[in-house]
């Protein structure tokens, strides 16, 4: 099913990429903040996909990010692998772990799955905290930066663009996936699993596949994060980070990928402008989480959907012809 | 690394997980929901008790009563404001909402009391140095009090659900809402009372363990998951089962901390949860089958 | 497989299913012949939907054997039965996706016969796009077949009850079955709609298709069925032509004098 708001979010991406390309050096701080936002966005898209398209809730996504980060970082630092290889390796191992977790997840539903994924995240955290090879509580330092075909991404702009390019590709891919027969099947699974199975849809295979995709996305984000910061510590992969992802997904609106992107940007950038209220931030976020989920689950996705409708309506007024696909915007 | 001491310590934390787990059990029986905020309520209980005792002086039992009453009221508020609007929404909504509440309480606690765990210099069992000696085992009297209290609560709750009309009504309300309503049971009131009781128990549990583990700190979610593990191991539908399961968790993690390393405490406990969910979700005693999958 | 065996699409031998203390099905044996309409009737609670659940793979029998096209389905999952054995069922309460359009619901039926995977769907490769057009084409074909082509873009939840059941049938037909199980398709329909439904089921049989249906509307059942099997308290008490079953003493007794005209208001 087409995701409402995809036009508006397209503008957001365009804006971000242009910003990254032309921003002067004095804007290094916003660039850094938005880079982090991009990394979170990638993970959040995965989580949103998981919850929104198959109804599986995972509170342990950072566990996959940790796997991607530590593996990629370790291979880069200790084995001197090229970034491309380490990155792929980290992401794939995260994805493979996703297969195992995804299989187990089939046997659990709703709240039990949430608890189980919480436990999973906690186990990964505990392991990276304890084991020597991951550097213990202090983590891994001096991780080599990202590089493509030998060109090392050292400037903040380069890193920003790399991150947001990946985010854009991931978003486009997920939107395309959801707007296909597979996306239809996923919606069917989410809304009525039994009916879907009775129509011949292999529910298990799709649930696992989406879990793997979400795990891979977290792994990708983690691997990039390790090289972006140059150092990682277990505290970056704790429970609170998983909850922060949940906040992003909820603010973005469950099931809305465009909303998630904007939410990631907003929730990462906003605190920076309100530094003096920093200590209230987590409490405020938690309160927002509860209020939104109870009162306004559509979240930002809803807002973007409205925006899309205005854009479409505006285009009808102007002498611009939109290629209309009859089922494109679906039933609301 | 004295096995006996590890055992005692594990049994005590197990008892406290049990109290929180009992809360899960009650909430589950009355609403079919799992409340992720149970652990944070316990943490809050410890901090509240500390604040109370600092304010009113060393009257531990009075503090416990105030905590219990406060817990009952907060539980009512919680059900009214957060849970009642979302009973009929898809499964992920209560999860997110209760997780949100857990976070809110955790960070709220941080705002009020700071983020690090605080020492708890009071005792609910009288003289802290008093102990009973069984052979080579030295069991502090305070711990015995905790055990006695927990057992009393479990028995009371079990009797309540099995024998009393109100308890039976609560179970009916969760099991079959329409049928219960047709029988004249006020489903909403039943849920509300169940949440109040469960919250009270969680706060009490947190207060009781504070002397042994410090108050507050980042233990809320760990307690939530471990108590849940205990509940599942024993069987979410069985009041005595959740206690026994929690004891198993407490002892296992205590032994892991002693014989392996302190950092393995949490992973071991969490692994127990995964094992029980995947291998035997109905737990040891079954009871009301929780349909986990 | 002998020619005779090919003529039997569904074979149940000694099938039993128990729920706790409740015996839903006890030693049920019957056959459904190819390209026929077989009706499964019986008072409420007789076990008919339970049998459907067993045959379609949503539940497993405690004892006995169920064969579809000669193959035992023991342990097969529901989606595999639709995919490999080409047997599909509808539900008593039309389980449509009420927020999706009618056309999208029927497109879901085509999913099992489609092949484009994650990669080609994401990249929108030509093969995937072609397949999507085919899916739409087929969906419209089946919607037209049940007479609802003009409502393709309506939101499924806005349709009348009777129309929703038709959409469900179209969706099931879209999976390209060789055997269609209909669970009380006539429930809640008025006389005119029931008539139209009877004609539709006959048209389905002519596709060709093997049809097994659970139904309470006796006039329709007796009019269109080639074979009738009667369940009561989980046991088969009669099986044969409509006329023979109507006159069967045990059947009459089971219905307690309600005769062959059930008011159809379940």
Can you offer a commentary on this structure?
The complex is a heterotrimer of chains A (332), B (293) and C (266). Chain A is mostly helical and 332 residues long. Chain A has helices at 6-22, 28-54, 61-78, 83-106, 110-130, 156-178, 181-191, 193-198, 203-229, 239-252, 257-273, 281-295, 299-317; strands at 147-148, 151-152. In chain A, strand 1 and strand 2 form a beta hairpin. In chain A, helix 2 runs parallel beside helix 6 (156-178), helix 2 packs across helix 10 and helix 2 (28-54) packs antiparallel against helix 11. The longest helix of chain A is centred in the N-terminal third of the chain and has 27 residues, at 28-54. The radius of gyration of chain A is 20 Å and the shape is globular. A two-stranded antiparallel sheet of chain B has the order 1-2. Chain B has helices at 3-31, 38-56, 60-83, 92-113, 141-163, 165-175, 177-182, 187-213, 220-234, 239-259, 265-279, and strands at 131-134, 137-140. By secondary structure, chain C is α/β, with parallel strands linked by helices. Chain C has 11 helices and 10 strands. Chain C has helices at 3-6, 48-56, 78-84, 102-110, 118-123, 126-146, 161-174, 191-205, 218-224, 242-247, 249-254, and strands at residues 8-19, 22-33, 37-41, 63-68, 71-72, 87-89, 179-183, 210-214, 227-232, 235-240. In chain C, a hairpin with a 2-residue loop joins strand 1 (8-19) and strand 2. Classes of the chains: A mainly alpha (332), B mainly alpha (293), C alpha/beta (266). At the A-C interface, helix 6, helix 7 and helix 8 of A face helix 3, helix 4, helix 5 and helix 6 of C.
Q: Structural class of chain C, please?
A: alpha/beta
Specify the overall morphology of chain B.
globular
Low-confidence stretches of chain B: none
Tally of separate domains of chain C:
2
User: How many beta-strand segments of chain C?
Assistant: 10
